[in-house]
Amino acid sequence: MEGGLQFRSYDSLPLISALNLVIQQHAVRTGVRVGKNKYFFPTSSQGFNLSPGITAFQGFYASVRPTYNQLMVNVNACMTAFIEPGNLADALLAFSRNSRGAMPTLPQALMKKVRVTTHHLGYKRRYNIRNIATTTARNTTFSHSKYGKISVEEYFFKEYKIRLKHATDLPVIDTGTKRYVPAELCEIEPGQPFRGKLDETQTSQMIKVACNRPIVNAEAIVGDGFQKLGLHPSTSPSTGFDIQVSQKMTEIPGRQLPAPQLNYRAGNARVDNGGWNILDVKFHRGAQIPSWSVLVVRDGQNVFQGPDDLRLRGLVQGFAAKMRKSGMTLPQSPPSLLLVDLPPPNQDPSRILALNEIRRTFKEHIEKAQGRKPAFVLVLLSRRDNYIYPGIKRIGDVELGVHTVHMQLSKVVDKEPNKQDQYFSNVALKVNTKLGGINHKLDDVAMRWLRKNTTMMVGIDVTHRGPDSKQGTPSIAAVVASVDRDFVQYHASMRIQQTEKVEEMLGELAEIMVERLQAYQAKNKELPERVFVFRDGVSEGQYNDVLTVELPQILKAFQRFSTKDRKSPYRPQLSIIICGKRHHAKFFATDSKFADKNGNTKPGTVVDRGITDIFGFDFYLQAHAGIQGHAKATHYVVIYDETRFTADEIQQGTHDNSYLYARATRAVSLIPPAYYADLACERGRCYLNDFLVDDKSSTTGRSQGDKKAEEQRNYEAARKSWGRGVSLNRPRFKQLALNQSFL
Questions:
Q1: Rounded-to-integer distance, Cα 727 and Cα 37, Å
Q2: Example GO molecular function term (predicted)?
């Protein structure tokens, strides 16, 4: 730990793992482990209700970390959702009410593997839910040696004299090998984390209860956290190993980097606490909009009576005025107004009919315009829906090649003029960038480090299917790269790949990097002399995989440009920087003069000593302001470096670039190339949204071979659905691919 170079290759993982076993011994006995090194104590903690059946509990993360000259325990407060104990039938009915009648298939991912107990046998018996069937107790039948073919309802009455209350309105539970139990006879055991994806309302509630100010988190960690984790002397089992943990937080040195100057068309914006106002500012370069259209999606909430509704006309006119005021050029004539009425969600839970209606409306509009597509379509949504939004993105991007920009009517209708104007400004940021405009730039001083030589900034990310996705759903990989000297315009390449084959590593990186270099060359008539790669989404244990799998592919892409007409092989300087957001290091200001009004450390705070790697080059940068809750820095780790910038240059340059994110008027927590790669992955998830929710009722009782065959079928279906995506090779999609359609 003293940093001796002879120990650089020493593998400390076995020792750290052993120490974690000791440190976490008390929490293992008294709490519920969720994920790696996170412990929750639902039986002795105050919960926060997110929705009927779902409760959030605060817990704590604890892990031993080696730092220069000492070992530390990284402790952090965290929050997760748990399934409320109680009757399973009541839980399913609550889900049905909250999901507007989306029964019975959608609880599948929520309840799978949940532990339940039954008492109808005369004793307590525990089951793990394998699946939730699509049939009720009345219409689910099976063969029985005593009764012959019989329904589940009849069986429980004849065998146990139990008359079911929900024989016709709730599905039965498959506990394995087609053993069906009515939900009303099952009791959910306490202490089980919720494995599904929180809906919009639940997520909103979770944010409210989890967003605590730094002082609240500090008190929770030092007080409740130390006690429950067993780090307090009175509860610590580690004293028997002669291990003592300090009861105080460690003070480490840090400093605040200055904000860069931001250039708009008519001058500079004034930065205050990491943000700035653009209400009366014109974009650096406004987009040209030859035509645009408006699609009003009426989904049970008819905010507008029809196309002549004065509020609708006023909203459209107000947004058009905002675009002009921001510097965009658009026709004086009003846009075409399209209205589409969707069938009720309880009649169309997967929204297939709804999306077909939207698709038909889109196509008819383009046909009436004789194939002349609008530059973009403004989509007005009455509510956010897990199917409608991604479905429209797929229709626009993949099927029709039309930009779509969405507005939530709840955020803009009947709002105060200043709030509506601010919302219009935020949407205008997206429109201008999508259509080739430039919102703002950094001044020459901030760009000096990147302009010493021609440079391309690259962001890479991979997103995987969730636990509620269809088996075999592929991973989505995205690579974005800059094409201009101001680093405000990025183009993207996306691929799908079989998760089991590549895990987190990107499988076709050489081909994708060739695409990105070709785009840079086409725009600048030359290739970059330096390439910075910002890799998001990999854990500490995968750093070496990036070097052994992805680095060779990047170098292979460079070789593709080493043609005979070049005087020397093409080999730009390359640096690879990992961007980590999934760490648990949180910073607390030691004095109010170092904190903002919420108690967070100020934007531009950088830490590169005290808790960083013993041998490596890494730093923590909090470029953004903590708007709500406790601000979290990004951990940047330089794992490969040929550019040889100093630590100060890399840190200040990364900080300055955090002000270039096109969709915001404030610095963001993650450098834009990595942020854009994440956005591109999320857009790819929209294209495969049908595969991200598994509506199959049962996979129980099938052989491993059958499951593998289904995985392969799902993958092939996803690959077919993905098609060629948004590609430069498809003429009608060329402009969409060139611009930042993923924003």
A1: 42
A2: RNA binding
Give the separation between CA 738 and CA 698, rounded to whole angstroms: 43
Find, among 88, 275, 263, 278, the residue nearest to 188 by Cα.
Answer: 88
pLDDT computed for residue 239 by the predictor: 66
Closest CA to 269 of 441, 444, 445, 446: 441
CA distance 559 to 576: 18
Task: Please identify, among 410, 434, 458, the residue that sits at the C-terminal boundary of a domain.
Answer: 434
Is 181 in contact with 114 (CB distance < 8 Å)?
A: no
Helical H segments across 619-687, by residue range: 647-657, 672-687
Least Cα distance to 192 among 99, 118, 127 occurs for 127
- Average pLDDT rounded to a whole number, residues 594-614: 95
pTM (two decimals):
0.91
User: Residue 272 — pLDDT band, cuts 50, 70, 90?
Assistant: very high
Segment 454-509, tens digit of pLDDT: 999 999 999 998 877 888 999 999 999 999 999 999 999 999 988 765 555 677 89
Mean pLDDT for the chain? 90
**Does residue 277 sit within a domain?**
no
Write down which residue in 416, 434, 452 finishes a domain.
Answer: 434
Query: Whose CA is closest to 491, among 513, 466, 467?
Result: 513
pLDDT at 132 over 50: yes
With contact defined as beta carbons under 8 Å apart, do 292 and 330 qualify?
Answer: yes
Return the residue matching tokens 């052994």. 548
587 DSSP β-pair partners:
none
Output the pLDDT for position 106. 47
132-141, 536-545, 569-578 — most confident range: 569-578
User: Both 179 and 208 in a single domain?
Assistant: no
Q: Which residue has the tokens 């040195």?
A: 253
Indicate which CATH number applies to the domain containing 609: 3.30.420.10
Say if residues 57 and 42 touch (Cβ distance below 8 Å). Answer: yes
Lowest mean pLDDT among 335-344, 470-479, 499-508, 551-560: 499-508
- Write the single-letter amino acid at 211: C
Cα 109 from Cα 362, distance rounded (Å): 33
- The encoded tokens of residue 11 equal 């593998």
Whether residues 524 and 644 fall in one domain: yes
Single-letter code of the amino acid located at 139: N
Q: Which helix (H) or strand (E) holds 33?
A: strand 32-33
- Give the Cβ contact number of residue 364 at 10 Å: 11
- Name, in order, each residue with C-beta under 8 angstroms of 628's C-beta and a sequence gap of 6 or more: 207, 211, 598
Residue 424 region by backbone torsions, left for phi larger than 0, else alpha for psi between -120 and 50, else beta: alpha
Q: Tokens for 334?
A: 């009003």
DSSP bridge partners of 122 = none
A 10 A CB-CB count for 250 gives 11
Q: Is 95 within the bounds of a domain?
A: no
Whether a cis peptide bond, with omega within 30° of 0, leads into 104 is: yes
- Do 236 and 129 share a structural domain? no
Q: Are residues 47 and 18 in the same domain?
A: yes
Which residue type is seen at 553?
Q
Contact 183, 94 (CB under 8 A): no
How buried is 29 (Cβ within 10 angstroms: 0-12 exposed, 13-18 middle, 19+ buried)?
Answer: exposed
Q: Are residues 645 and 503 in the same domain?
A: yes
Same domain for 453 and 371: no
Does 388 lie in the same domain as 356? yes
**Closest to 52 in 3D by CA, of 104, 110, 105:** 110
How many distinct structural domains can be found in the chain?
4
Domain check: are 116 and 35 in the same one? no
The domain spanning residue 110 has which CATH number? 2.170.260.10
Residue 203 lies in a domain: yes
